[in-house]
C-alpha cells in the first residue's frame, strides 16, 4: 500500500471540516448504518464518549491502494510555530479558498508557512455553489497572493480544482459535471503530492504533537524519518542539543485510520504515528533507536504551544 501525507489549509469557515467529512464518506470510511453526524475534525465529543483520544485533528482515508494521512493545521497566527512543525510532516497541501470570499488573512498566513516549508499546494476553489461565487477572480487573487509570498515557479504553477465540499464534488472546471464526486481531488493528490521520502537507518522521528491521553498517558505524534518502530521496542529520547532525556519502552503505536486511531504492530518510515509509553519526550525532541547519537534538526518552537486533550 502506498502513502501520501497532506495538510488541508484554509481560512476559518472556508469549508475544511465539511470537505474532510465528504472525503471520509466517499472513500468508504463510514459504514452505511453509521451516524455521520459527528464531524471529523471536530471530534471532541466522540473522544469524550469513547474515552479515547482522536485529537491531533488528523485522519486518514484510503483511495485505491493508497492511504492518505490528512493533518489539520490551526489557521491562526498565534500557532505559528505549531503550524510550521505540522506542515513539516507532510509532502503536500490542499488550499481551500471560498469562491466568493477569496483569500483571507488566515489564507495568507498558512500559505506563507506552506510555501516556506517547500510545499506545492493544490488550490481548491470551494463553495462554488454560492450564487456570489467569482471563481476566476479568486484564482487570480490566489496567484497574486502566492507571488507576493515569494512562491517559486513550481509553487506558482498550482493545479486548480473547483467545487463544493458540501455537495461532495470537485472538478477541473467550475461547472458541475454530470458525474460529480471528489474523485478528481483524490486523483490529483495521488498525482501531484510525492510519496513520503524516507531516509535509511534505524528508527528516528521528531516529536511534533504532544497530547495526554487518560488511558495511555503521554502520546507523541510525529512522522517517522527512518526505520520502524514496534510495541515494546526500546526508544531513546534526545533533546535538540543531543542530550538523552530518557530511554524507555514503547507501549503502544497508534496510526490514523479513518476517524480513529488504531493500534498497529509496526510504524514504518514515512508514516505519521502516535507513540505511547515514554514519559519525557516532547515537541521537537528526537525519538530514536538507542544507537542513534545525533538528534534530527527540528523547527524552532515559537511560541511553545503544546496540544493537550484534557
Ligand atoms: P471550516 O471552519 O473550514 O472547518 O469550515 P466548515 O466546514 O465548518 O464550514 C463552514 C460553513 O460553510 C458551514 O456553515 C458549512 O455548512 C459551509 N460550507 C461548507 N462547505 C460548503 C460548500 O461547499 N458550499 C456552501 N455553500 N457552504 C459550505
TrEMBL record:
Keywords: Cytoplasm, GTP-binding, Hydrolase, Nucleotide-binding, Ribosome biogenesis, RNA-binding, rRNA-binding, tRNA-binding. GO terms for cellular component: cytosol; ribonucleoprotein complex. It is found in: Cytoplasm. GTP binds at residues 13-18, 126-129. Its EC number is 3.6.5.-. It catalyses: GTP + H2O = GDP + phosphate + H(+). One of its GO terms (biological process) is response to cold. One of its GO terms (molecular function) is ribosome binding. It comes from the Bacteria. Residues 1-197 form the Tr-type G domain. It is an enzyme of class 3 (hydrolase). A 50S ribosomal subunit assembly protein with GTPase activity, required for 50S subunit assembly at low temperatures, may also play a role in translation. Binds GTP and analogs. Binds the 70S ribosome between the 30S and 50S subunits, in a similar position as ribosome-bound EF-G; it contacts a number of ribosomal proteins, both rRNAs and the A-site tRNA. Belongs to the TRAFAC class translation factor GTPase superfamily. Classic translation factor GTPase family. BipA subfamily. Monomer. This is Large ribosomal subunit assembly factor BipA.
Amino acid at each position: 500500500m502506498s502513502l501520501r501525507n497532506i495538510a488541508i489549509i484554509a481560512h476559518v469557515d472556508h469549508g475544511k471540516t465539511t470537505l474532510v467529512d465528504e472525503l471520509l464518506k466517499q472513500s468508504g470510511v463510514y459504514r452505511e448504518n453509521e451516524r455521520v453526524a459527528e464531524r471529523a475534525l471536530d471530534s471532541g465529543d466522540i473522544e469524550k464518549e469513547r474515552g479515547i483520544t482522536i485529537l491531533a485533528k488528523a485522519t486518514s482515508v484510503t483511495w485505491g491502494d493508497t492511504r492518505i494521512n490528512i493533518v489539520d493545521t490551526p489557521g491562526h497566527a498565534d500557532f505559528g510555530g505549531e503550524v510550521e512543525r505540522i506542515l513539516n510532516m507532510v509532502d503536500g497541501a490542499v488550499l481551500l479558498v471560498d469562491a466568493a470570499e477569496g483569500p483571507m488573512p488566515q489564507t495568507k498566513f498558512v500559505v506563507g508557512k506552506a510555501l516556506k516549508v517547500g510545499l506545492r499546494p493544490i488550490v481548491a476553489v470551494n463553495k462554488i455553489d454560492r450564487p456570489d461565487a467569482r471563481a476566476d477572480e479568486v484564482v487570480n487573487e490566489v496567484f497574486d497572493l502566492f507571488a507576493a509570498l515569494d512562491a517559486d515557479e513550481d509553487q506558482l504553477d498550482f493545479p486548480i480544482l473547483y467545487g463544493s465540499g458540501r455537495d461532495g464534488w470537485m472538478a477541473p472546471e467550475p461547472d458541475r459535471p454530470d458525474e460529480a464526486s471528489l474523485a478528481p481531488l483524490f486523483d490529483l493528490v495521488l498525482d501531484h503530492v510525492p510519496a513520503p521520502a524516507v531516509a535509511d537507518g534505524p528508527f528516528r522521528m521528531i516529536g511534533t504533537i504532544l497530547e495526554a491521553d487518560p488511558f495511555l498517558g503521554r502520546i507523541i505524534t510525529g512522522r517517522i524519518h527512518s526505520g520502524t518502530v514496534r510495541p515494546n521496542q526500546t526508544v531513546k529520547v534526545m533533546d535538540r542539543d543531543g542530550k538523552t532525556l530518557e530511554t524507555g519502552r514503547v507501549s503502544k503505536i497508534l496510526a490514523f485510520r479513518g476517524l480513529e486511531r488504531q493500534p498497529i504492530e509496526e510504524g514504518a518510515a514515512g508514516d505519521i504515528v502516535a507513540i505511547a509509553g515514554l514519559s519525557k519526550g516532547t515537541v521537537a525532541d528526537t525519538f530514536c533507536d538507542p544507537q542513534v547519537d545525533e538528534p534530527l534538526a527540528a523547527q524552532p518552537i515559537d511560541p511553545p504551544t503544546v496540544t493537550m486533550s484534557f
